[in-house]
Amino acid sequence: MQANIERIRAFIFSNFLFDADEGTLDNDASFLEQGIIDSTGVLELVEWLEETFSMKVQDEELIPENLDSVNRLTRFIAQKTA
Amino acid sequence: MLLTDYLKAAAEQWSEKTVLIHGNKDFTYSDLDKAAMGVAAGLQKIGVEPGFRGALLIDDPYEYIVSYFGILLAGGIVVGLNTQTSDASLAYVLNDCQASVLFSADKFIGHAQASMPLVSSVQKLIVSGIADKGVHLGNSCQMHSFNDICGCPQPALHALPYRSSCDFAQIIYTSGTTGKPKGVVLRHANLIANTSSIVSYLDLQSSDRVMAVLPFFYSYGNSIMLTHLAVGGSLVVNQSFLYPNVILQQMLDHEVTGFSGVPSTFALLLNRSAVASFSFPKLRYLTQAGAAMSPELTRRLKSTFQGVKIFIMYGQTEASARLSYLHPDEVERKPGSIGKGIPGVELTLRDRMGMPVQKGEVGEIVARGENIMAGYWQRPVETREVLRSEGLWTGDLARCDEEGFLYIVSRKNDLIKSGSHRIGPKEIEDVLTEHTAVYEVAVIGIPDEILDERICACIILRPGCECSEKELKAHCKKYLPRYKIPHSIIFFRDLPKTTSGKVQKSDLRLMVSTL
Questions:
Q1: What is the CATH code for A2-81?
Q2: Which of B45, B230, B408, B494 has the least CB density, counted as fewest CB within 10 Å?
Q3: Residues in chain B closer than 8 A to A39 (CB atoms)
Q4: Tens of pLDDT, residues B426-485
Q5: ipTM reported for the complex, 2 dp
Q6: Closest Cα of chain B to A59: distance in Å?
Q7: Interacting residues of B405 by C-beta distance below 8 A, sequence separation 6+
Q8: Architecture of domain B189-411
Q9: pTM for the complete prediction?
């Protein structure tokens, strides 16, 4: 679980926050409300999830409950790869 | 007639009707009218003069709309700002239009604070949300709470400054090919002419309720707002298109009759949403503008939304939004066409000398109509380049078939269309060139199934320098809004050049497509 959190954070910083301080992202912070990711970003995120965790994200699963924070993503990955 | 008459008339006729739904909040016409009048009174109280520029850095639709109409009622000019901004971009626009009032949501206060020392014109900052949490602005600018401004007792109409339809109503910033954004100045009369025309061909009624996903600071979003207020319709607003399934559910829950998007909106809906499992019995029309949508995507849209009228539209910010539309009955018969001029707009195709071209020949689209802008703010040279005796020279090259239907062939400029954004590559090139490791740069758009185009920066590094893609993106993030940060950065040893030494972007696009 912790390893996945680190991988997700690394992806977010590398692709969306670039030079931001590591402490600026709370694991429960909404990507939408914080303006971290836009609609293209969500697609990049999904592409990365599918490649990195060898999982298929269904169109119906593109909802904030699954994708909109580090912790939500971690739970979603756990569910999909269980 | 003035734009403010739309809200006044609707508030008189449909006082208690819901006009705006945003999240779990809804507002009536009376709510909007009272709040807008309050904003106007508040602005007068803090001493604005007619003609002042009031800038909006707001993403809450209620606050945006009441501030928009409040500024107009107080005799000002609205400058809607892209909320995906950087400190430098914000300072540039505020300085360029010499805004004296800035409305900012508290979430953007960091940008406002950072840009204030660079902007001398802003005298009043009106902040919604937190207002008095010790924000230091670092100059003579006074801060006020949005609620205090909005809650001012409503003035009598005769106490508001007299404005005519020829007065400037709005400045909308648009990307320029030569670098910094330009302010498109629109009169009340321009926007009213375009609004009336769109209302007539979409046959909008007070019973219409649109799902508004495009930001109001864009010309297209602005026209969606104005057209629906003009007929006493309603707006269901969710301007973050991150999760299309959420939007689809809202469309169903609120029984919307209309939906407007750019090609990437529809590409997302068709490619990455559960749209096929929804049905929308009340949906009457879809409108598409902002960039050319492929005939294939249009065909899929028509097959997914059977029985819904699809309007393919074309326009420019310089035309208050809209210039042409393809009637829904012609979508299958004329694939790829942008249709004909909207009511009140005359479109001709002309050669370089200004002469009309023959049918079937390619010429530049030139537009005439009441909707055409007054000019670019404080830029007489650029204004004269596009506003000539023949009308507005759009920069878009097209041909016309035997029946008068127009087809865009190419664009004279190399603006990148990415999602709902039009992006001038020069601005990005200028920022990247400032990086010490960069020797030469060319920014191009490369085709993308969802976005239409992705931004690609092609870089030659200085000899002996090393620099990663991440470093260069971080550099861009300091100076550019997020949507202008290149999606990809490719390092080259050489870039293809013309004999005069100019980067040949068509060849570069070809090279990148084969990588």
A1: 1.10.1200.10
A2: B494
A3: 240-242, 244, 264, 268, 419
A4: 889 889 988 999 988 899 999 888 888 899 999 999 888 889 988 899 899 888 888 899
A5: 0.81
A6: 5
A7: B326, B330, B334, B337, B339, B340
A8: 3-Layer(aba) Sandwich (3.40)
A9: 0.87
